[in-house]
Amino acid sequence: MQIKGRVALVTGSASGMGRGTAEIMAQHGVKIVINDINQEQVDEVVKGIKEAGGEAIGIAADITKKDQVEAMFQKVVDTFGRIDILVNNAGISKDKGILKMSEADWDSVLAVDLKGVFLCCQAAIKFMREQNYGRIVNISSRAWLGGPGQANYSAAKAGVVGLTRTLALEMGKKGITVNCIPPGIIETAMWQALPEATKERLNQAQPTGKIGAPRDIARAVMFFASDEAGYITGQTMYVCGGKSLFANIG
Predict the structure, then answer these.
(1) Catalytic-residue membership of 153
(2) C-alpha torsion sign, points 34, 134, 217, 142
(3) d(Cα 243, Cα 250) in Å, to the nearest integer?
(4) C-alpha to C-alpha distance for 148 and 130, rounded to whole angstroms
(5) 116-131 vs 151-171: helix crossing angle, rounded to 10
(6) CA dihedral defined by 97, 103, 104, 110, rounded to 10 degrees?
(7) Which residue among the candidates 133, 153, 231, 238 is catalytic per the annotation?
(8) Side-chain half-sphere CA neighbours of 70 within 13 A
(9) What confidence tens digit (pLDDT) does each residue in 76-87 have?
């Protein structure tokens, strides 16, 4: 896949899937911008990429704040001269039943998981349109199909799918593709923190009998971000071990 030398910003990349994706992309010669809200964690990931021979910078910014998002993308362009790839990975969850979910629970999840994607897409497109080239990969979730106790999260991730399709239509003639990846369960610190009984139940609900790894997401991201995928836009590709085939079980 032709991706070497491109400039990519990955939101929420100080840990979990975002970090794994950024590190693997860097190994393939992509110039990486690490973004998260914790500067210390951002610096740690950047250091690791550089020590491994990659090229990276870090920008701590809150993606729910328009001024911080716009300043972040301006810094990327000032540093590298362009922005080729945006991976909207940052997200949070606050799972509760609908009658126990507070307005604050709803607002905070929608702000990060949907508004943040919108703001980053908007800022990136301003530069990508001038280049007549861009790749946007939005990380949704299998939960956009529905999940008990996830009204806020499912709604936000469904919004990401709809936003992806709309931007693909708007940007198709500008050389910008916009695609979406809904992951299933991925091996991260969040997964490790689950009770063993919960992990066993979720594993049993997997058609593959196992959960995914950050590298599985990274490979899908790199495909959508590659030159070879230039005729693919507005698509949703599940990386979930088949879990999307029966979304509400497990």
Answers:
(1) yes
(2) positive
(3) 9
(4) 43
(5) 10
(6) 80
(7) 153
(8) 5
(9) 999 999 999 999
Please give the backbone phi and psi of residue 38, each rounded to the nearest 5 degrees, phi first. Answer: -105, 110
The span from the CA of 212 to the CA of 21, in Å, is 13
Those residues whose C-beta lies under 8 Å from the C-beta of residue 216, and which sit 6 or more positions away, are 183, 186, 239
What value does the CA radius of gyration of the chain take, rounded to a whole number of Å?
Answer: 17
33 neighbors 59 (Cβ within 8 angstroms) = yes
From residue 110, alpha-carbon distances to 46, 63, 103, 138, 149 in Å are 28, 12, 11, 15, 15
pTM above 0.85, yes or no: yes
Tokens matching residue 21? 């994706």
Q: How far apart are the first and last CA of the chain?
A: 35
pLDDT tens figures, 99-131: 999 999 999 999 999 999 999 999 999 999 999
Q: How many CB atoms lie within 10 A of CB 32?
A: 29
Q: Which of 49, 162, 64, 164 is nearest to 109 (CA)?
A: 64
**Angle at which helices 214-225 and 16-27 pack, to 10 degrees?**
60
Per domain, the residue ranges of the chain are 7-246
The Cα–Cα gap between 203 and 205 comes to 5
Joined together, the tokens standing for residue 91 give: 């997200």
Side chain identity at 28, as an amino acid letter? H
* CATH 2.60.120.10, domain 7-246, yes or no: no
